[in-house]
């Protein structure tokens, strides 16, 4: 029997339509929406632009209002169905982790011990360990096993404020296994209610069965890409351009295959040596050059001209005990936006908190806390080609975090700990 709405229910529905779904008041609001600093352009000098008595309203998954509560158009209870007093807590955009490899099977704790004993990352890779050892484990895992192993990692990132997550393939290195990884990445997003962006990284390492035939392997990678794309599994394309990865020419061929499909590119560039990777990805109008510890001044200039974001991965720098810093001052001088990401992976960066990556970016790379926060929000969104998030502004996605601290710098100050009060993605509470 069809159920008829009562007048009261119809009235409520009409009210629902008119009112916002939720409104946070009494928040210290870092909108990240200004030219500098935390940026809301309201409360004073650049770098301190924080609304101390801010409000954030949302409806149907989008932000309806972000700014000082004094500018709200009516009383909170007239405006929203649910009004939440944030008690003076800091509220920021949901964090965006724009570079991870978090879908994989097994771990490489044994290699961590080998490195502590003196072996280098490159030596281990050349001896058949490294990426290829994770490939073995990942190939042997079913889709459900991969999901079960990856879900707790994604959940940990969400619990520390991440609402958009990039996940790369690259531990399958055959068509079926790369596809399985990308499918698991999509399923993670469905399971957690956050947005997962997938990147095809078939050109991550040479699988053992292709030893001595990198060219043939790259042919295969270029052939898989359209098929994976046709299944809706690819948002962007990446490669590992390095002595122990692929050459410039091989990388270029992968990028051309991406371009033919209209897919954006990014690159693991200049991580262990200056291979001209940053300039190469910039020449393709790439979204980002990632790692970039060894990027030359010419590479920085090329990135600036192309609008390519520098994605800093201080977790890998830290774990590998690297000593060459990315050219941070040159990025600043040329206005290259710097993003910060976890690079979560079993080899170089078993890091399960983007806030921790921000901390490492401050301590190792001397980013200011404001730069680190921009790096994990607005610049990270840009590194994924997304302009509908990473800032708090009416019309953008209602992705935000309420923290148990008052100052943005505190996010980069604490090592570990549980600073998250609540995480909202698309206007729904997810953690
Ligand atoms: O971003 N450098 C290449 N890829 C990863 C490491 C992958 C691994 O060691 O499993 C990185 O550091
Ligand atoms: Fe990486």
According to CATH, the fold-level topology of the largest domain is: TIM Barrel
Q: Which ligands are bound?
A: N-(iminomethyl)-L-glutamic acid, fe (iii) ion
- Structure classification: alpha/beta
Radius of gyration: 22 Å
| Low confidence ranges | 1-11, 39-48
The CATH architecture of the largest domain can be given as Alpha-Beta Barrel
- Just give the CATH class of the largest domain: Alpha Beta
- Count the domains: 2
Strand content: 15-25%
Distance between the termini: 38 Å
Q: Got a strand count?
A: 16
**Overall 3D geometry?**
globular
Largest sheet: 8 strands, mixed
Q: Level of helix content?
A: 25-40%
How would you state the average pLDDT, rounded?
93
Number of contiguous helices = 17
Highlighted features:
431 residues; alpha/beta; Urease, subunit C, domain 1; TIM Barrel; 2 domains; eight-stranded mixed sheet; eight-stranded parallel sheet; 20% strand; binds N-(iminomethyl)-L-glutamic acid
